[in-house]
Putative HTH-type transcriptional regulator (Actinomadura macrotermitis), 147 residues
Amino acid sequence: MPVPERLGSYLKRAEQALSAAKNAALRPMGLTVPQYAALLQLSENPGMSAAALARACAVTPPTMNTVLKNLQERGLIERSPHEWHRNILETRLTPEGEELLARADTGPVRIERGLAAEFTEQEHRTLVELLGRCIDYLDGARAEDAR
């Protein structure tokens, strides 16, 4: 099958274009997309572990450890041992992290809203459904290959 006809090429190009647009919007705040994603996840799920954050942000655990190290060095997050599982570190936003996220979030939100505005409500629902089916299939294919 010729490369231009491969669905994966379109999915990858769309993901790359979205990431590039978000990186450009976040650059003035001194954040990368993975750092922003971690801050956003932590704002909604305080106390997440690095492993849970890596899964939620779709990055590898080593990448998330680097992200968290950089965010901690900037004073945007704090990490402390879990109350019962001392070998698990809970991660929370600091007030500085909350403030930066509030400012930084305007760019990605603007991009997401602009992207959504390219579609009618029905097209948007259909796109979300179709992408969900892509994800389900690919997750299943990965699980099959792992066996």
User: Anything to note?
Assistant: The beta strands are 77-81, 89-93.
